[in-house]
Structures are given as structure tokens and as C-alpha cells.
Amino acid sequence: MSLAEYGERIRENDRVILYISFRQIYPLFVTPEKCTKSGQKVEHVFQTTYGALRVSDLIGQRFGTKVKLTRGYAYVLHPTPELWSKALPHRTQILYATDIATILLQLEIRPGSVVIESGTGSGSLSHSFIRSLWPSGHLHTFDYHESRVKAAQQEFQEHQVGPAVSVRHRDVCAEGFDLVDVADAVFLDLPHPWEAVPHAVQALKPTGGRLCSFSPCMEQVQKTCQVLRKCGFQEVTTLECLLREFQVRKISMLEFDPTRVSKTEADSSANTKATTEGTTEVTTEVTTGVKRPLESDSEDLESKPVTTTNGSAKATIPERSFVTGVPLLNMPGHTGYLTFATWPAQIKLEDGPFVTDNDAV
Ligand SMILES: C[S@@+](CC[C@H](N)C(=O)[O-])C[C@H]1O[C@@H](n2cnc3c(N)ncnc32)[C@H](O)[C@@H]1O
Fold first, then answer.
1. Which of 107, 126, 190, 192 to mutate to test the pocket of ligand 1 (most atoms within 8 A of CB)?
2. Ligand 1 pocket, 169 CB below 6 A?
3. Above 50 in pLDDT, residue 281?
4. Better-predicted residue by pLDDT, 243 or 29
5. Domain boundary, last residue among 28, 58, 79
6. Second label for 117, Cα 20 to 30 Å away, from 26, 48, 97, 256?
7. Looking at ligand 1, which residue's alpha carbon is closest to its atom 20?
8. 193 pocket-lining for ligand 1 (C-beta < 6 Å)
9. CA angle 240–245–250, rounded 5-degree value
10. For residues 28 and 55, is the Cβ–Cβ distance under 8 A?
11. Is the CB of 93 under 6 A from ligand 1?
């Protein structure tokens, strides 16, 4: 099992995702025994709100199997970066699939890419980077919080992606990345990303690359954009990814049926009269009880009619119910702004300094 590849059956020491419901997703390490706080080894039994699971029973099962708990059941899934983001132990705020998908696309991450990331945080984005650049690329990820560095290192080993990632303990704003001309892409999730931008210039390949900075506040975005332009980045663009949730609802609406309008068309000239303001006013009279043959048996046609009065017009209009998606009026969704920029290819003139493509033309 590796988070970057797919395995068929569960083996000892694999990471699996126990899926009970959309909101109950647990990461589980498949070890037959576990240590208690006092250091004693006991059988590994995982407790859920639907009862217990003996973890050793998972060994040999196919990923995706429905497994019995003592008071219910769960699915044991192969870990993916998306599931890991939903289940991981939070050490910091993290990025989720919507932003991550945009980041991977815009940074053009592909097998073989070399990526620099700071900070590592809880490693949510790191796992997606690793899967995209796997197997020949490399992720250099930095955090100035030592225990987060150690926790991330351990998780990468447990998830068998260790060779594709280096985790370093470093303040990247003060000390830079200690990498020169190696990166295809740089990603910043820092409180002061503009301080790391000049270091990103050093680290990006002279053949060009992409940078992304994630910031919750517009003031951070503005400062970062100013520094990006000053340092020579091009195509500076800021995006916000918002999830738009629709709830499935049965709603009723008055049915519009032109066959119910009897006199309107036939007597339109008779019903049109000049008003005192010189404009024309149309009165309509609507007959009731006319059903189109195809609709007469429809279950959705509500029997209770609505009677409306509009000037001289009177109508009895049935209501029609149908299932549709209704957007929520208030939707929480802001995570942050994603600022992307392109580091243009630098051309080395003979014995001269690097200049950009544009300068050379
Ligand atoms: C919000 S978290 C990153 C979360 C990460 N993107 C994820 O999806 O799990 C920000 C991290 O940046 C680290 N950090 C802040 N300033 C830093 C700096 N100057 N150098 C290195 N790391 C820094 C913090 O310790 C923190 O762990």
C-alpha cells in the first residue's frame, strides 16, 4: 500500500481509511497489536459509535470491503490524498480538495515535477503534490515548527512515499529554501508570503516555472502581488474557489398552461382598449378545468388549485411539484485566495546575466 499507488489487498502495517458515513471517516493503521499508555502490548481493537472492530481481521481483505462492527458496519477504503485530507489528524488549518485541485492544475504538476512547499502544516496538500509528481519527481517541504516537521516525516514513511519527499525544519522567510534553480513550482501557505517570494526566485528553474500563494486575507494578497511583480513574475492572477452547495428539494410552482387561456387570443382585439394614459391594457379571461390529455394522470399535478384575481382576469391554476436543486442562501465557503504567477524562462546571454525571454527579444 502507498498513498501514491494502488494496492489490491490489505497487509499488515498498511494505512486504511475506515468509512462509516460522510462525517465519520477514520484513518487506521493495520497493526494486530497496539501499545497502551503504560507501554503494555494489547490486541488492537478500534472503537466506533457503531461498535468495535478487531483490526487484525482486516489483513488479507480487499480494499473496499464492507466490514462488520459489533453494532453496524463500515467500509475499509484504500487511502487517497483526498480521503487523507478528510481524515488526517489536524495540527494546523489545512487545504481541502477544492483548493488543492486548482493548485495542482494551475501549477501544472505532473510526474517528474520538482515542487517546493512551505509550510508543511498537517501535510494535507503535500500528499496530493506527491501523488501528482510520483514516481520520478520530488517534493521539498519546509516548516519552522519542529514537531510538525517530525510528524509529517513519520506520516510520509508510514504512507510509503518517503523517497519522493524531503521535509526540512527551516524558517523560509528568514533563511530561504537553500535550493537553487531546481523547482518547477513553488507553493506558499505562510502568514507573510511576500517575504519568501525573493527566495522562490532563487529556487525556480531558469527555464521558468509557476508560483502559488494561498492567503485568507485580501491585504496579504495585495502585498504578495506587489512583490511578485517587483521580482519579475508575470501573469499574476488571484482566484477564489467557492463550493456552491445545492440542497435537493421538492418544490411547487403554479403551472403555466397556454391552453387554459381561452379568450385572450381569440378576442384579443376586443379585450384591448385604450387607457386614459394613452397606453393599451389587455384583459384576459382564463377558463378552468381544462387539462391537457398527457398531464391528466400526472401524480405531480396538485389537486388544490390556486385562484388569482388580476383586474378583470380570473384563473384557477393548478400547482406542479417537482424535485430540484436549491442553492443555500448563506453559504460558508471562503477559505482563502489563491494567487498564481509565472516565472518566465531566463535566457543566458554569453558571459552575461540571465535575462527574461521578453528582454532578449
Ligand atoms: C496553515 S499551515 C499549512 C497547512 C498546509 N498547507 C496543509 O494543507 O496541511 C501553515 C504552516 O506554515 C508554517 N510557517 C509559518 N511561517 C513559516 C516560515 N516563515 N517558515 C516555515 N514555515 C512557516 C507554520 O508552522 C504552519 O505549520
1. 190
2. no
3. no
4. 29
5. 79
6. 26
7. 171
8. no
9. 155
10. yes
11. yes
